[in-house]
Amino acid sequence: MGAQAATAEVSRLRARLEQMQGRRLDAPVLPTLPALAALLPGGGLRPGAAYSVAPSASLLLALLARPSQEGSWCAVVGMPELGAEAAEQLGVDLSRLVLIPDPGARWLAVTATVADVLPVVAVRPGGRVGDAETARLSARLREKGTVLLVQGVWPQAEASLGIDTPEWSGVGDGHGYLTGRTLTVSVTSRYRPLPRRARMLLPDDTGGVAVDPVGLAEAAPVAGRRERMRAVG
Q1: Which of 21, 32, 44, 220 is exposed most, by the fewest CB atoms within 10 A?
Q2: Within the chain, which residue ranges are assigned CATH 3.40.50.300?
Q3: How many angstroms separate the CA atoms of 46 and 69, rounded?
Q4: Confidence of residue 3 (pLDDT cuts 50, 70, 90)
Q5: pLDDT tens digit string along 19-69?
Q6: What is the pLDDT of residue 18?
Q7: What angle do CA 33, 111, 78 make, to 5 degrees?
Q8: DSSP character for 46?
Q9: 50-53 vs 159-172, strand pairing mode
């Protein structure tokens, strides 16, 4: 297959994928913090899409920070340990944050209801979800243009965000205060054959998020393996 034919085939497949998913791959995205934007497909969170996020409160709040700052209302469902103070420290606008710590057994129905009215919803699943339920929620997300951030594995996610190798700083000679944490954030998606990863300060010494200036993997593709999501708070 020649270069022109290959390009035409790629364009045809992209158009077909857009038609099947009901959205364009280059559609506008919700902005995220610059350190995360470099890793995400399209440079942000795509309305109508679901994202699988490693079980890290810091990473989840970092994803909510910029959308809330830009005026998007956000909800967090099923995470009773997530506090407003931690959210504010990582840049989340508390005036646009709704916390539903214990939705009970009907967590999926609560999530779907909230997704009807708020543009960004984060949830920790309270149980297994069937294919039919997933399909119904996905259709609702596309209809409303809502971004869903799922703490854990989620079928047909737009992208999966994982973290690895955390290192805390600030303690010297066995005493002192923890002031920052460095870790690797990796993102895999359906649109990239290889994951992208970057070493980040999460949080940095100001409580925010920044790319580690001495990291060796700033937004670079990683060949040969996929990052596993690990439970790091």
Answers
A1: 220
A2: 27-159
A3: 17
A4: low
A5: 444 444 455 899 999 999 999 999 999 999 999 999 999 999 999 999 999
A6: 46
A7: 75
A8: P
A9: parallel
2 pLDDT above the threshold of 90: no
Kindly calculate the radius of gyration of the chain based on its CA atoms and give it in whole angstroms. 18
Judge residue 172's burial from the number of C-beta atoms within 10 Å of its C-beta, 0-12 exposed, 13-18 middle, 19 or more buried. exposed
Q: What is the pLDDT of residues 177-187, one digit of tens each?
A: 555 678 899 99
The CATH class of the 27-159 domain is alpha beta
Would you say 222 and 193 are in contact if contact means Cβ atoms under 8 Å apart?
Answer: no
At 63, list the tokens. Answer: 């994803």
> By the 8 A CB rule, do 229 and 163 touch?
yes
Instruction: List helix spans (H) across the chain.
Output: 3-21, 34-37, 57-69, 84-89, 107-115, 131-144
- Distance from C-alpha of 42 to C-alpha of 26, rounded to nearest angstrom: 7
* Mean pLDDT computed over 80-84: 91
Looking at this protein, which amino acid is placed at residue 149? L
Residue 109 tokens read as 């129905």
HSE-up (13 A, CA, CB side) for residue 99: 15
Full DSSP string of 156-180: T-SEEEEEEEEEEEEEETTEEEEEE
